[in-house]
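Here is one chain, start to finish.
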Amino acid sequence: MSGNGSNWFNREGLALLTDFYELTMMAGHLKDGRTEQRVSFDYFFRAMPSHTGFAVAAGLDCFLSYLESLRFSESDLAYLKSLGVFDDAFLAYLKDFRTRCVVRAVPEGTFVFPGEPVIQVEGPILDAQLIETALLNMVNHQTLIATKAARVCLAAESDPVLEFGLRRAHGPDGGLSASRACYIGGCASTSNVLAGKVYGIPVAGTHAHSWVMGFPSELEAFRAFARLYPEHCVLLVDTYDPVKSGIPNAIKVFCEMRAQGLQARPAVRLDSGDLAKLSKICYAMMRDAGLDDPLIVASNDLNEDLIADLKRQGARINAWGVGTQLITAYDAPALPGVYKLVAIETAKGWQSRMKVTSNIEKATDPGRKHLVRYYDADGHPLGDMLYLEGEPWQQSGVVEGRSRKNPHSERRLENAATAKPLLETVFKNGRRVLPQRDLAAIRDAALEQRNRFPEEYKRLRNPEIFRVLLSTRLGEMKDAMLMNPESAE
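Its structure:
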């Protein structure tokens, strides 16, 4: 079973999931008669978490479900009235509010990089302003967690990663949304039963130390669990002493199961101690007892670096339960995603806008744009290019462009064999334009992306930086606007 969980975000009560200043700006635009002023915003992130060479786009489906159901209820309006800030005309406007924005986006599961417009919102300025906070909340979080999950799964190589993070997640939705993102990033299952129901993610788990401690002996606890769940019996062997009692007792139970004709794969979990050493001892003891191909699951505050190090030590672990450090993105708990105005429609057509600051890192890329990814002859990504809307883009060969940070500097992508535009229209006239994607299909797309990208971008430390360039025309415009922000086309 695999679902999409749209109903979780497609419900009354999320219209006020916004920052207060979004509403005050909306009210100001209404008073100024700007309800039909059309604008274009880009959502992008400025930087990767440390030592991370890629990000996995996630959260779009939840954002689109929110857009489809975006309504102000009577209780919402009553609350806003009670604040004493908004006049009756604004509250009347909100009562009949339905978003008129058009959304273009990179599909979920796509590998994306700093500075790229992952989502574009175009429409009336009041509409585009209101949805900023919800977009950032949903997409920043899920993209961050999907990226962390992909790194953990890369470290685990072909072993399954079991997401065990709910109890350490940042609240109920911090757990639910993160479980969804972990599955997109490559995790095989979750311990979160609600995520299993809502999103169709496979659920998995073993038992706690309290199960063992609740019986007169460890052996009795193991026998009881095996009797109840003979097809899904994973025994936690470190409640007391794993070498002297836990592993021998587990072996005894699995041998008894074999004698009864039960052929389920023998499986244990290690949750403390020297995991490399214990896993080797466990593997040898189980093989010596005639239990071939045992499943040895490890947990205990794991992350991608610890998993990679345990692999280096030759640990006999072949499944990984990862919780706190995955579900919270422990070492980088926020993605610096932003939502910036890039163009405004005037009587003469669309005019580009650009945030200019003394910090060149925060200067935005102006204008309505599209994003093209180039591939070599073997189908491996070479780099991405941002083009202005309506600008023709090159299909192959040597692709000339400009640096994003230094747009006067020429750059190029060489040996391009094919090209693919990444942004597609996903929302228009208050509804989704494309069929809702199955979560398993999104996960498959992310895994396919991971396989296509060269290894240098996937290193856990000091990865190669994937090239994101501006077209020559866009680079020239940005360079001119850095000197004179009012020089927009």
